[in-house]
């Protein structure tokens, strides 16, 4: 996929309070796919501009782009990244190195200088970042309402949608502790028994199940079918975006094997949800499609009870968002095969997580 990246940065004082902005667009139509902006404290214009470039390239990677056309109104950054000017400022070299490392991950990256008026979207984002850091509220934005008082009373279930999240049963790769992403492998005999046990637990949690939705991979579909049989034969609906993370070259390898063969890539992946395994997809890409899938499910079955059968990564990301947890949550939570988690979601966006990774039914 080919994309356009427009990036900019600015500083009010040079050095002074600084911010960056980056926009990723479709090629050639120019529709916006992603935007990034943020404050970076006190810095120079050039540091802010390089930061905008780095963040724009990261965003392109999140979208699995293979070719990138970078457009910036910074002559310095464009000429240095094109190799025509030397990087004499020692403070810019680490950022330039970061940008070069990101460039190497694409099949092709081109750099083009454009006048500032053609870079207005990225420039506006950079200024927005600086404004927000300074506490400046735009005139067309209404001030936020004061926070509502917290109530410790049990929430009413009126209009709530209950989500019962179930990881698929065991497979041969699960048993061996191997990365299992898009490989479409079946449940083991033990996995079939676990799925039926999970169905019993689901039946105990909800008398009337509205829907059972599943990842398209057979280990999930079969788990969903066995659960559906336990709760009255509810049809199974496949939702493609509930599929597991694509682990790329790490597929079917153990953590130890990955650590030995791809130590740098593994360290980068563990350190950032925007980094993807070689040939795979990042957790943030998985999170984006999982959120979209969950939004559709909530609209389709509002006020009902929905069993969601998926994989480790999508379920962890759903729980991370529900608990407003940091990214480190993803590497600290363990989800057993056929483990069950439960949460309630209200139309106003409130969420109550009831349980995480229940496994008593598996003993």
From TrEMBL:
Substrate binds at residue 219. It comes from the Bacteria. SUPFAM superfamilies: Phosphoglycerate mutase-like (SSF53254), Ribonuclease H-like (SSF53098). The active site is at 168 (tele-phosphohistidine intermediate), 244 (proton donor/acceptor), 244 (proton donor/acceptor). InterPro entries: His_Pase_superF_clade-1, His_PPase_superfam, PGM_Phosphatase, RNaseH-like_sf, RNaseH/PGlycerate_mutase, RNaseH_domain, RNaseH_sf. One of its GO terms (molecular function) is phosphatase activity. Pfam families: His_Phos_1 (PF00300), RVT_3 (PF13456). Residues 1-139 form the RNase H type-1 domain. GO terms for cellular component: cytoplasm. NCBIfam families: PRK07238.1 (NF005567). This is Bifunctional RNase H/acid phosphatase. The lineage of its organism: Bacteria, Bacillati, Actinomycetota, Actinomycetes, Micromonosporales.
